[in-house]
Amino acid sequence: MVRTQIYLTEEERCGLTALAASTGKNQAQLIREAVDRFIELTSGSRRKSILNSAAGMWQDRDDLPDFHAARRTWDRN
Fold first, then answer.
1. Domain that includes residue 33, residue range
2. pTM check: above 0.70
3. 29, 39, 50, 62: which could form a disulfide with 25 (CB 3.0–4.6 Å)?
4. Tens-digit pLDDT string for the chain (77 aa)
5. Is 76 inside any structural domain?
């Protein structure tokens, strides 16, 4: 593990202390769990953002075959 120092507001610190007391976990465990959950939540949106930025990246290429015409020849009537 890597030691990291953070600044919390007084309200965050009090809430974290109360949560630690009620769960029996220490503050470091609670912070790690919160960071893990945040990473899980945002990693899906990051993946979606990357895919959205890649959408249409080949649309202006003129050196590719006409896929729609090729596909029409493959389709069954």
1. 8-48
2. no
3. 29
4. 999 999 999 999 999 999 999 999 999 999 999 999 998 888 877 778 888 888 888 888 888 888 888 888 888 75
5. no
pLDDT at 77: 56
* Identity of the residue numbered 74: W
Phi (first) and psi of residue 23, to 5 degrees: -100, -20
Evaluate the CA torsion angle 58, 60, 64, 66 in order and state its sign: positive
Q: Which of 62, 40, 64, 44 is nearest to 52 (CA)?
A: 44
Indicate if the alpha-carbon torsion angle 38, 43, 44, 48 is positive or negative: positive
Task: Report if residue 43 sits inside a domain.
Answer: yes
Structural tokens at position 61: 């290429």
For the chain, the domain total comes to 1
